TrEMBL record:
Entry keywords, A to Z: Aminotransferase, Pyridoxal phosphate, Transferase
Lineage: Bacteria, Pseudomonadati, Pseudomonadota, Alphaproteobacteria, Acetobacterales
Pfam families on file: Cys_Met_Meta_PP (PF01053)
Coiled-coil residue windows: none
Residue positions, PTM N6-(pyridoxal phosphate)lysine: 205
Cofactor: pyridoxal 5'-phosphate
Name of the protein in question: Aminotransferase class I/II-fold pyridoxal phosphate-dependent enzyme
Signal peptide: none
GO BP terms, alphabetized: transsulfuration
One Gene Ontology cellular component annotation held by this UniProt entry: cytoplasm
Family classification: Belongs to the trans-sulfuration enzymes family.
CDD domains on file: CGS_like
Gene Ontology molecular function, alphabetical: carbon-sulfur lyase activity; pyridoxal phosphate binding; transaminase activity
Length: 394
């Protein structure tokens, strides 16, 4: 099956008379159990074990996991309560005292803070590097490097990274590569097929698509996902609520269709912003002016709906946009039907989340100026979005 079909049919329950056509929401926390079928420890959980306790697994959640695995071309998936639960769970599972993480110097702020503040406290070495430069990644590898973590496109700058090149560098160094593909979605990029070991998603964003459920996922090899389930899900405990999983399954059915429209609308808006005198720079992987447009064409089958732009006097402009926009909303998050824009001041994020100094901080400022506007272009009519921007930017 191709992605648009997988999103609707992959892992669907048996077709038999009387079976419902939509996924069943199983809200139960525990299930009838055969005393001989399963032990009491997470270590006893076999691949074929029937549902037992919802933190271990749940039929509604299992359908979401299987559908995501199909979309990513992976053997197995594991759903979590949020994207942060997925990312932190994977990092806690793969890293320990004395281990070393190479992480993108620009990535989702929560993941950057978790790496710099929390993992370091547990004795993990952390090196932040520019993942658009494979040479810098190779130079950061150490004998004890266990994991290379990258985000492409990176939140909030939309800088890209070459997944196949990074997978080779990670593997040569005896490490694994995890890719946060939240902004790309499996419609644009399937990192496992490019050599990555793990794909991470915040399902809260495009996968859900409607901004009404939190969720996260990790997709990878079956044995590795089983080990991750035992430690990072069953023991750390960030299990997704089955109702959230059900909402995300519903959203996932339209993901390929929505991504086509997100891409179209983002292109219209990005091209408009490029001509606006108040806007100094626009980043969208589909624009010929994106510094890595060639990589985008090679690695992305869809350029996604995220646009970032840079303007002089950006803090004042943020206040003006928040006050004047009528269709677009000034708010955080991304990937939903409604267009959302949010301003991230460079000095704030450099200090509080990224901990970057010197040449790395300079490179960030060169890309974003005083700050970057992260614009999640929604599914409204692009003419209305452009008209709204026109009056709000005036
Ligand atoms: C939002 C986001 C996360 C965190 O996901 P939550 O579901 O909010 O916990 C991680 N990575 C990226 C790229 C994100 O945009």
């Amino acid at each position: 099956m191709r992605p648009a079909t997988q999103a609707i049919h992959a892992a669907a329950p048996e077709r038999r008379p009387g079976a419902p056509l939509t996924p069943s929401l199983v809200a139960a926390t525990s299930f009838h159990t055969d005393p001989d079928a399963i032990g009491f420890s997470a270590a006893d959980l076999g691949a074929e074990a029937p549902p037992f306790y919802t933190r271990w697994g749940n039929p509604t959640v299992a359908l979401l996991e299987q559908r995501l695995a199909a979309l990513e071309g992976g053997e197995a998936g594991l759903a979590f309560a949020s994207g942060m639960a997925a990312a932190s769970g994977l990092m806690l599972h793969r890293l320990g005292a004395g281990g070393h993480l190479v992480v993108s110097d620009v990535c989702y702020a929560g993941i950057a803070e978790f790496a710099h503040d929390t993992l370091r406290r547990y004795g993990v070495g952390v090196t932040a590097v520019d993942m658009s430069d494979p040479g810098a990644v190779a130079a950061a590898m150490r004998p004890e490097t266990r994991l290379v973590h990258v985000e492409t496109p990176a939140n909030p700058t939309l800088r890209l990274a070459d997944i196949a090149a990074l997978a080779e560098i990670a593997h040569r160094g005896g490490a694994e590569l995890s890719v946060d593909s939240t902004m790309a979605t499996p419609v644009a990029t399937r990192p496992l097929e490019l050599g990555a070991d793990w794909v991470i998603h915040s399902l809260t964003k495009y996968a859900c698509g409607h901004g009404d459920a939190l969720g996260g996922a990790v997709i990878g090899r079956a044995a590795a996902i089983a080990a991750l389930r035992q430690e990072a899900l069953i023991h750390v405990g960030g299990a997704i609520n089955p109702f959230a999983a059900w909402l995300i399954l519903r959203g996932l059915e339209t993901l390929p269709a929505r991504m086509a429209l997100h891409q179209h609308n983002a292109g219209e808006v990005a091209r408009y912003l490029e001509t606006h005198p108040r806007i100094r720079r626009v980043y969208w992987p589909g624009l010929a002016s994106h510094p890595q447009h060639d990589l985008a064409r090679r690695q992305m089958q869809n350029f996604s709906g995220m646009v970032s732009f840079v303007a002089d006097g950006s803090k004042d402009l943020a206040r003006q946009l928040a006050r004047r926009l009528k269709v677009i909303t000034y708010a955080v998050s991304l990937g939903k039907t409604q267009s959302l824009v949010f301003h991230i001041p460079a000095e704030d994020i450099l200090r509080s989340s990224f901990h970057l100094e010197g040449a790395q901080a300079e490179a960030y400022r060169a890309w974003t100026g005083e700050g970057t506007f992260r614009f999640s272009v929604g599914l409204e009519d692009p003419a209305d979005l452009i008209a709204d921007l026109e009056q709000a930017l005036a």
